[in-house]
Design goal:
mainly alpha, globular
């Protein structure tokens, strides 16, 4: 065998080895950044999301149904059933609350499968590598894919819908499958149903009215399979088909749409004040998407995505997409691996894909909260376009590809925020350790006055005992007034949320746990029991109020973030 043949074989082998090493390094880095040991999830942060998800998932696994038990009563949970249902297998296998983090980790890693598949199929291996890199190290995604929250599963469902939308054929089976996925995505997060917007737009472009109606009907049947049982559950649990757990647990906002949605919120989100964010007069969600100040990406990623949009715009009238774009036909013939398709076909698919984050942006612009995690579904189209643009730039520069690739790497990593490469949830689990210690001091018939979340204490402190957890104030998580039935709309002058909360108590709202409220009479039914106070280090004023009611505080634990006291009546 000649030397030249050996050199060619060596070059091919070395190139293949480099590709394998690059993919291995990327996937290993993504796994390391996302992995949080279950023992570090003892605090079940953030509340109330993580604790309700895990408690309801455990109740599903134990055959109790989709319920939350609190202070001796059974309540329907706040959130849709999709995410707790996906966590239930962990508890069927005997896991503890903390072990739900394993399922979240798997969902976060599986999201890269549909994302990478679409990028690889349409734009080649290089584009798939850059796409996963850009999405995988998004700071907001890293943060929320490390917590027991529904973001990871929601992104996996939406990514799967988009992959089938881009790669699937136009048939009734395809529309039905997308409807099923969209219905389940809505059970994970209600806005997940909006992921079917691109599919609906595609259905409206069918050639005949009969084909359009058939496509939309098939899509609706798939959605109804999941939504119909949900509506029945709503009617049984909340007294109305379209009432849900948000109305039940937070009636002051969701019973009155004006407190949740409104043009005022859109104006506040469009013009951000100095008091709320460091930069005044910036469009909030534009800043989130641009990667500036807490955004989803490093700033270079949206710039590359814009470059990708420009590339598509320039190619929209061409008969084929060449230049290294190894794409399949996004339609009936994609399985044939045709390599040179009309650009208009792919451009139309990408435009439909971009419509979803646009409508999601409009929805959350009028929402009372403006958290950046709401725009996480923009990861899919933005990172896809950015990955394609990066791959094309490297391919089109003759001889300078490796240099440009290293430059892009450097710019991306140096402009990324530290949270993109850290594990923000890996910190001492103070709440879990404190509650475990309280178990040593509290007798089985104790009364605990606390500002901790009552549902968290229900899971770790009350089970198997006669202990009573009493909220210090009626504004602790899971200690605000709930509404088991629809409340009448207030008439007359407009109310604030606090006023509505007090008003709702006169019309059937109630506290799910006993509330102390610094009224000594609240302890009268429990006066024969030992009473304890859990006090955070910053709540010194609470101790003074307790003393004014005629109690002295006897410390049981050394000073620290939280301290346990026993209440003793002053003679």
């Amino acid at each position: 065998m000649s030397k030249s043949i050996l050199m060619v074989m060596w070059r091919k082998a070395s190139r293949r080895i480099c590709v394998i090493l690059a993919w291995t390094a990327l996937l290993f880095a993504l796994a390391v950044v996302r992995w949080v040991p279950p023992d570090a999830q003892g605090d079940l942060y953030p509340l109330p999301d993580a604790i309700q998800y895990t408690v309801s998932a455990q109740n599903i696994a134990q055959g109790k149904g989709y319920v939350v038990e609190l202070a001796g009563r059974v309540h329907p949970p706040r959130y849709p059933i999709g995410f707790p249902l996906s966590l239930a297998p962990v508890f069927l296998l005997g896991g503890e609350f903390r072990h739900a983090a394993i399922a979240v980790f798997l969902y976060a890693m599986l999201f890269f499968l549909p994302l990478g598949l679409v990028a690889w199929r349409f734009f080649g291996q290089g584009a798939a590598f850059w796409t996963i890199l850009f999405a995988g190290f998004s700071p907001v995604f890293v943060q929320h894919s490390s917590m027991i929250m529904s973001e990871s599963l929601s992104l996996l469902m939406i990514g799967t819908i988009f992959a089938i939308e881009l790669l699937g054929s136009r048939g009734r089976r395809n529309y039905f499958c997308l409807g099923l996925l969209g219905g389940f995505a809505a059970l994970v997060r209600y806005t997940g149903l909006m992921a079917l917007i691109p599919t609906g737009l595609r259905a409206l472009k069918e050639k005949t009215w009969r084909a359009r109606l058939t496509a939309i009907g098939t899509l609706a049947i798939g959605v109804a399979i999941f939504l119909a049982p949900t509506l029945c559950f709503n009617a049984q649990s909340y007294g109305d088909l379209f009432r849900n757990g948000y109305h039940y647990w937070q009636p002051e906002r969701y019973e009155n749409p004006g407190f949740t949605f409104g043009i005022d919120y859109a104006l506040n989100h469009a013009v951000v004040t100095w008091a709320k964010h460091p930069q005044p007069l910036l469009i909030y969600y534009a800043r989130v998407l641009s990667g500036v100040d807490g955004g989803l990406f490093a700033p270079i990623v949206p710039l590359l995505a814009l470059l990708g949009v420009c590339f598509f715009w320039c190619k929209r009238k061409s008969h084929g997409l060449g230049g290294g774009l190894e794409q399949a036909v996004p339609g009936p013939g994609w399985r044939k691996k045709e390599k040179n398709v009309e650009a208009a076909t792919l451009v139309a698919s990408v435009c439909r894909l971009l419509s979803y984050p646009f409508f999601l942006y409009l929805f959350y612009s009028c929402y009372h909260s403006d958290e950046s995690r709401f725009l996480l579904p923009a990861l899919f189209p933005t990172s896809l376009l950015a990955g394609m643009a990066a791959s094309q730039l490297i391919q089109r520069i003759r001889g300078g590809g490796p240099v440009l690739a290293l430059t892009l790497f450097a710019v991306f990593f140096f402009t990324s925020k530290p949270s993109a490469f850290s594990r923000p949830h890996l910190r001492p689990q103070l709440r879990y350790l404190i509650v475990q210690r309280y178990n040593e001091f509290l007798p089985n018939d104790a009364v605990l006055l606390t500002s901790m979340d009552p549902l968290y204490l229900e899971a770790h402190l009350r089970k198997g005992t006669d202990r009573v957890v009493m909220a210090l104030l009626p504004d602790t998580s899971h200690a605000t007034p709930i509404a088991p039935h629809p409340l009448p709309r207030p008439s007359g002058r407009a109310m604030s949320i606090e006023e509505y909360r007090r008003w709702s108590l006169d019309f059937g709202a109630e506290y799910p746990v006993p509330v102390f409220g610094f009224h000594k009479a609240a302890l009268e039914p429990l006066k024969d029991r030992p009473i304890f106070l859990d006090l955070a280090s910053h709540q010194r004023g609470v101790g003074r109020k307790i003393r004014r009611l005629g109690f002295q505080l006897i410390p049981l634990t050394p000073p620290g973030p939280r301290r346990l006291y026993r209440l003793q009546a002053i003679p």
